[in-house]
From TrEMBL:
It comes from Roseovarius halotolerans. It is found in: Cell outer membrane. The lineage of its organism: Bacteria, Pseudomonadati, Pseudomonadota, Alphaproteobacteria, Rhodobacterales. Residues 1-27 form the signal peptide. One of its GO terms (molecular function) is siderophore uptake transmembrane transporter activity. Residues 205-649 form the TonB-dependent receptor-like beta-barrel domain. The keyword Isomerase does not apply. Keywords: Cell outer membrane, Membrane, Signal, TonB box, Transmembrane, Transmembrane beta strand, Transport. This is Vitamin B12 transporter BtuB. Its main location: membrane. It comes from the Bacteria.
């Protein structure tokens, strides 16, 4: 078989994870792979045309990588760039709150109205044992929304080797062309009687890079992360109390009018489960979490000030939890649950001439200019049921139903900032939509799915799925309170109706995954930058999204080749316009050779021209590109490996179509990617 059901490999095998996270994730449905010294368990349900599992440790990617950049190595995923930190993940042409990002059971929503800190930028990939990526709407159990896909960072209780009380792993990396340095590690301690403790820390320091034409791209940032877990895992019970912390400082953004000197995320989390045997009830799982994000952006502390000084401190606080029962009725298994999340966001812009900067730094009320997020609270409570039924030895039916109660309010919609001539957020809502946000808005949202899988033979499975998912508007879409950027309190929730078809073939030496989808969207929430001159507004339109996703691989002896391709189309059918921020046809193909503890390979990343754009939002058409990367690794000992590579070997000048317009350099259209870059990493386990 291409990936045996159970297999122990030396450190050299990390290469197939590090060089080919995509290939590793496309294994046979029953595969579980253990890598020594780093153990990887790959759940069967995670592998297939609509899902991928990444193992962050051992990936042969450039150090100091943003979370979305790590995820973008998977088939069908890409990311838009505004700077070096805070890339915007895109799956099936959808982004932001159209995706669910779940870090060990918790949700975090960034505190920057301009998306400098999406949740992938603060998620702790260092502490994740595996990352499950689902493309499209694959489960009703992952919370509200998630029409484009879901990313779940999973953690497991440590399983120390027999006789060991302490284990851990360390990693260090550095690179040229602004890559900077990265140092991280995690330690697990067996406290006895089933109790354990874990601690982790990492430090990333990135500098500005140059693109293929030698232009400097402002991409520097410093990030410090840490976390502690106290847990218990024994006798069918697992319980963990987590504390996670992330601090990002001096983050530069050529794709924005401001930079961010400070962004801090703090997460508290209690999670666990208990095996039971009470009739059909087999297990109960639950979690509680609190995440707090504090963000500051300005246009003077990290760049030359031109004109008026501006500073925006903002907060985003989320609390929530989940309770889920696992049931077994023989041929049918089920998950029945309830979840809740409440997110509050507040952002005030302060402005003044340069001598007034000290007042801005102290958030002096006399310098308040716009109330961007007027104390916006969105509460969502959901109940769900999801079943899997074995119809026959060859056929499985998955069915799910979900109901969400949503309540959104703006506690400061009538507050007038000192410098806004008496205008309040309600003033702008009335001006653009003829409404106010004096009363809460409530929604009753219903979603669900049906998915049939059928095994044509032991090597080939086909599937078809239908789903409906509903996404409520976020704080920006519903309540942004600037004169030139106005949220819509009466915006309707976005309703996706998707059809998925797919094929999975695993012939041992080679595999093929293929899927196609169509998504008919009622009340698509359009960020409208063309209907009202000089003002960004939000309205509902009808839209259609569709695409094809392919991945394949082959292995023979020391040789392996794998690749993927993704095509996406998005259309605003109400206005007969293309939807903005839709990636072009793109993909990658890799070839590797390995023997006796070392492996080396090459990868071509490519994208075609993208001319199907919304000229009001996209910076413009984007030319296609092809870049060459080289990578390799060598097993130093049975517990240590060195990984190295060269990205963009031919020093091409190019930009991802999803990247922001470069506001800092008028000689280029978008924020370009880095030119030729060398990197080196060492990972070890003790």
């Amino acid at each position: 078989m291409f990936y045996p059901a159970t297999k122990r490999l030396g450190v050299t095998a990390i290469l197939m994870c590090s060089l080919a996270p995509c290939a590793l994730a496309q294994a046979a449905p029953e595969a579980t792979t253990e890598l020594t010294p780093i153990t990887v368990e790959r759940p069967a349900q995670a592998d297939g045309p609509m899902s991928t599992v990444l193992v962050p440790r051992g990936m042969n990617s450039s150090p100091v990588s943003d979370g979305a950049a790590i995820l973008a190595t998977a088939p069908g995923l890409t990311a838009g760039r505004m700077g070096g930190h805070g890339l915007e993940l895109v799956i099936r042409g959808q982004q932001q709150n159209q995706l669910n990002i779940i870090d060990a059971g918790s949700f975090t929503y960034g505190a920057c109205p301009n998306r400098m800190d999406p949740p992938t930028s603060s998620a702790s990939f260092l502490r994740a044992d595996e990352v499950l990526i689902e493309r499209g709407y694959a489960s009703v159990t992952h919370g509200p929304g998630g029409s484009g896909g879901t990313v779940v960072l999973n953690r497991k209780a440590p399983e120390l080797a027999s006789g060991k009380r302490v284990e851990g792993h360390l990693s260090a990396g550095a690179g040229s062309n602004g890559t900077g340095t990265e140092l991280g590690g995690q330690i697990s301690v067996d406290l006895g009687r089933g109790f354990y403790a874990e601690a982790a820390a990492e430090r990333k320091n990135a500098n500005n890079y140059v693109d293929g034409s030698g232009r400097t791209v402002r991409s520097a940032y410093d990030q410090t992360g840490a976390g502690v877990t106290l847990g218990y895992a024994a006798n069918g019970i697992d319980l963990a109390l987590d504390y996670d912390y992330s601090l990002v400082e001096d983050s530069l953004y050529p794709g924005a009018g401001m930079d961010s000197p400070f962004d801090e995320t703090t997460i508290y989390r209690l999670r666990g489960g208990m095996d039971v045997n009470a009739g059909a009830l087999r297990r109960i799982e639950g979690s509680l979490f609190s995440s707090e994000v504090d963000h500051v952006m300005d246009n003077y502390s990290l760049r030359p000030l031109l004109g008026m000084a501006m500073r925006t401190p903002a907060t985003s606080d989320t609390t929530g939890g989940k309770l889920e029962a696992h049931l077994d009725f023989g041929r049918t298994t089920a998950k029945l649950g309830i979840d809740h999340q409440s997110n509050n966001r507040f952002a005030m812009m302060y402005a003044g001439m340069p001598p007034m900067i000290p007042l801005l730094d102290n958030a002096d009320p006399s310098r308040s200019r716009f109330l961007m997020w007027p104390d916006v609270t969105i509460k969502q409570t959901g109940i769900y049921l999801e079943t899997e039924t074995e119809l026959s030895p060859k056929a499985m039916l998955k069915a799910g139903l979900r109901y969400d109660r949503v309540k959104a309010s703006a506690g400061a919609a009538n507050f007038a900032p000192a410098l806004d001539a008496g205008n309040t957020p309600n003033t702008y809502y009335t001006m653009q939509y003829g409404t106010t946000f004096n009363t809460a808005r409530e929604e009753d949202n219903v979603g669900g799915l049906l998915r049939l899988e059928y095994a044509l033979n032991p090597d080939t499975t086909v599937f078809a799925g239908l789903s409906r998912s509903v996404r409520t508007a976020d704080a920006t879409e519903r309540a942004m309170g600037r004169a030139n950027w106005v949220g819509n309190p009466d915006i309707d929730p976005e309703k996706h109706h998707q059809l998925d078809l797919g094929l999975q073939i695993d012939k041992g030496a080679w595999y093929l995954n293929a899927s196609a989808y169509a998504d008919w969207v009622d009340d698509y929430i359009l960020r409208d930058q063309f209907s009202v001159a000089g003002v960004t507004t939000y309205r509902n339109v009808s839209a259609e999204l569709s695409g094809i996703e392919l991945s394949a691989g082959w292995e023979q002896g020391p040789w392996a080749i794998w690749g993927d391709a993704t095509w996406t189309k998005g259309r605003n059918t109400t206005d007969k316009r293309d939807i903005a921020q839709i990636p072009p046809l793109q993909g990658q193909i890799s070839l590797a050779y390995g023997i006796d503890g070392w492996r080396a390979g090459a990868r071509v990343n490519w994208a075609l021209d993208q001319n199907q754009i919304d000229p009001a939002r996209d910076p413009g058409p984007t030319p296609g590109f092809a870049t060459l990367d080289l990578f390799g690794s060598y097993e130093l000992t049975k517990n240590a490996i060195v990984l190295a590579g060269i990205n963009n070997v031919t020093d091409e000048t190019y930009a991802n179509h999803l990247s922001r317009a470069n506001l800092f350099d008028p000689t280029v259209t978008q924020v370009n990617e880095a030119g030729r870059t060398f990197y080196l990493k060492v990972e070890a386990k003790f």
